[in-house]
Amino acid sequence: MRIYSFGRCLKPPKKWRTRLLDGFLHAPQYAEERIVFVHTANHQEYPSLLQAKQVFLTILIELALFAFGVVPVRCADTAFPEVVVWGDGATGENDPPSGIRGVSALAMGNRHVMALRSDGTVTLWSNHPFLAEVPPGLSGVASIAAGSLFSLALKSDGTVVAWGYNDFQQTEVPPSIGKIRAIGAGSYHALAVREDGTVVGWGLDSVGQIEPPVGLSGVVAVTGGFEHSLALLGNGKVVAWGRKGLPQLQVPATLTNAIAIAAGWATSVALTSEGRVVAWGDNAYQQTSVPEGLSNVVAIAAANIHTVALQRDGTVVAWGDNSRGQSAIPPGLRSVRAIAAGDGNTGVILDGPFRKATGVSQITDGLIVNVTITESGFGYTNPPLVAIVGGGGAGAAATAVIQRGRVVAITLENAGQGYTNAPTVLIGAPITPAELRMRVARVSVELSRLALGGTYQLLGSSNMVDWFGVGDPFDAVDDSLTQEFELGSTRRYFKLQQFP
């Protein structure tokens, strides 16, 4: 038997799929039926999980977590947005296209938002029709950048495409710049890093902002503000140029381990390899006053007069001007994986509603001495169950500790005994918020060794007690059959019944 499914649900971890095959997840109260997990993450097929030999085959859309019972892992409702923008929404920046998915990066200008999709296309939104246009046929995009009123895209073949307002020739890409490996945008000028690590610029050049220092090389990233530009070198140093005497050009002498840069209108920001944020330049709105104690930062963004940081745990911190709400983080914002900042706005790409935590164990002299978190997950409302299995021993027990929806530690309650190998650590999945419901999905079931002429009916249930028909009964005209079904939003469990 092979089971296919389509939609957006969680894909079971490989370890769990292995346990499914050897019976670890076989809930005893349903021992007379074979239990199979049907995932709907990416249309992938798992062939020959189990052969259907019973009259009834139970298909669990929600995975049974442990043998002690059925603990569901619910599907992610696509009503959860992937991109959220807040602040001044006067020109439509706060209204991403409905259902936008597969976003890998954001860039924000003064009146528009750019989203790079995982398929290499770009989506823009703005109430300004000119700024919302994307060049026809644009594809194969690897990175994006946004100036005040223009957009840049770097394609995977090293070419650059620019569009938008061209009042300072910022959209006129020089024809002889060669192959490019990184791009950046200032307010009214564009920057690019060539394959040889040198920088080329075009657009507004009122104070030398597109004229890098002579001999500058080894550059890996560039960005710009209004009258200045920044370059990040491969050795962790930052170089600035533009109007002489500006405070945003005064790179701190101690900054030698930068891994990312950002620029506001008159500010410069760097992220260090230790996860610290360093900011300098104009501080009229406290946009360079990094919050005390800010650490574990993995990404930074800067706009005209506010600054944003993303921490390792998925939380966002913003400071500087908040006159349009751009520095006020929305309450209840779930885990974030990317950030961007525009004039009066902040944008984020969200992770899914939840992600399962993972861990590994260590043994000494047959005892488990430590369990380490390898992935903290997110979306936990209660500490999940923890199971320690395999390794040749027995008796180990552990509990999970959560903070802000993440598993931050595993407390070992019993070290067990007799372990010859480090056992597997299984951590339960987050419990989905009560209001989250599965949207209509499509499931395709392929069965073999069917009784010719037999009649079958797919049944669905929300509680595994009351069963209702899904679709119409169908006949087996061959010994194998593929049948597709539309699944209702309240049906979580499914089984295939053969009529006598």
Structure characteristics:
500 residues, mainly beta, Methylamine Dehydrogenase, Chain H, 3 domains, five-stranded mixed β-sheet, four-stranded antiparallel β-sheet, 1 helix, 35 strands
Strand and helix map with partners:
Elements: E1 2-6, H1 14-22, E2 34-37, E3 56-60, E4 83-87, E5 103-108, E6 113-117, E7 122-125, E8 141-146, E9 150-155, E10 160-164, E11 180-185, E12 189-194, E13 199-203, E14 219-224, E15 228-233, E16 238-242, E17 258-263, E18 267-272, E19 277-281, E20 297-302, E21 306-311, E22 316-320, E23 336-342, E24 345-350, E25 358-364, E26 367-375, E27 386-389, E28 394-403, E29 406-417, E30 424-427, E31 441-448, E32 455-461, E33 468-475, E34 480-487, E35 493-498
Parallel strand pairs: 2-3
Antiparallel strand pairs: 1-31, 3-35, 4-24, 5-6, 6-7, 8-9, 9-10, 11-12, 12-13, 14-15, 15-16, 17-18, 18-19, 20-21, 21-22, 23-24, 25-26, 25-30, 27-30, 28-29, 31-34, 32-33, 32-35
How would you sum up this structure in a few lines?
This protein has one helix at 14-22, and strands at 2-6, 34-37, 56-60, 83-87, 103-108, 113-117, 122-125, 141-146, 150-155, 160-164, 180-185, 189-194, 199-203, 219-224, 228-233, 238-242, 258-263, 267-272, 277-281, 297-302, 306-311, 316-320, 336-342, 345-350, 358-364, 367-375, 386-389, 394-403, 406-417, 424-427, 441-448, 455-461, 468-475, 480-487, 493-498. With 500 residues, the chain is mainly beta.
